């Protein structure tokens, strides 16, 4: 495996001579390929820094990456000329993932009666409780089978939901209010009282 013969020297008597002999003996061994630290590559070009990374991608993946970057840059230029960061921060990505997978829960919001969209004109405010969140944990065999039937086009025209939805299981008491013309109204099943996956 080694070219040439290796010479052995007698054991050294002092520590300084042992360091010298070990460095000379290690220099005769073939040097193993070592990766230099990233800090040393700070002043090299971007192409040099990321060449090993790009070599791990296929040609199609590189084209897809470049087209995504070009599209993102053109969107940034069209929206006012401010450049967007090429890669979003992982913190914001995690926040979006957590927001997508929050479990089904009851939330509340204080709104005016006019904002409810029921056709009443009134400045009175009500506490509107609603259901929000995902139901990933509540997926059952029915949902999986229904999704499969839809993907195989066995169910074509019917409007069916292939996963459970976060909806009210019970409603609050009726809400009464006066409109802008001093007429008295009562609305039932307006706010959610309990939420669940159905």
Automatic annotation (TrEMBL):
InterPro entries: Cystine-knot_cytokine, GDNF_fam, TGF-b_C. Its main location: secreted. It comes from the Eukaryota. GO terms for biological process: glial cell-derived neurotrophic factor receptor signaling pathway; nervous system development. Pfam families: TGF_beta. It is found in: Secreted. Transmembrane segments: none annotated. Residues 1-42 are annotated as: Disordered. CDD domains: TGF_beta_Neurturin. Residues 93-198 form the TGF-beta family profile domain. Keywords: Disulfide bond, Growth factor, Secreted, Signal. GO terms for molecular function: glial cell-derived neurotrophic factor receptor binding; growth factor activity; receptor tyrosine kinase binding. One of its GO terms (cellular component) is extracellular region. Residues 9-34 have a biased composition (Low complexity). Growth factor that supports the survival of sympathetic neurons in culture. May regulate the development and maintenance of the CNS. Involved in the development of the neural crest. Might control the size of non-neuronal cell population such as haemopoietic cells. Acts by binding to its coreceptor, GFRA2, leading to autophosphorylation and activation of the RET receptor. Heparan sulfate-binding is required for signaling. Belongs to the TGF-beta family. GDNF subfamily. Homodimer; disulfide-linked. Interacts with GFRA2 coreceptor and RET: forms a 2:2:2 ternary complex composed of NRTN ligand, GFRA2 and RET receptor. Also forms a 4:4:4 tetrameric complex composed of 4 copies of NRTN ligand, GFRA2 and RET receptor, which prevents endocytosis of RET. This is Neurturin. The gene is Nrtn.
């Amino acid at each position: 495996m080694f070219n040439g013969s290796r010479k052995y020297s007698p054991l050294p008597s002092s520590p300084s001579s042992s360091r010298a002999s070990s460095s000379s003996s290690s220099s005769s061994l073939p040097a193993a390929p070592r990766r230099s630290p990233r800090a040393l590559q700070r002043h090299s070009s971007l192409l040099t820094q990321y060449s090993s990374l790009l070599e791990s991608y296929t040609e199609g993946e590189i084209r897809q990456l470049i087209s995504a970057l070009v599209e993102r840059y053109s969107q940034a230029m069209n929206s006012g000329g401010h450049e967007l960061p090429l890669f979003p921060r992982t913190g914001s990505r995690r926040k979006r993932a957590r927001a997508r997978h929050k479990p089904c829960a009851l939330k509340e919001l204080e709104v005016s009666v006019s904002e409810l969209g029921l056709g009443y004109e009134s400045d009175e405010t009500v506490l509107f409780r609603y259901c929000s969140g995902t139901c990933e944990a509540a997926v059952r065999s029915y949902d999986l089978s229904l999704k499969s039937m839809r993907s195989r086009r066995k169910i074509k025209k019917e409007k069916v939901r292939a996963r459970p939805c976060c909806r009210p299981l019970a409603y609050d008491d009726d809400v009464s209010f006066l409109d802008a013309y001093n007429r008295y109204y009562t609305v039932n099943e307006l706010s959610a009282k309990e939420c669940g996956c159905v």
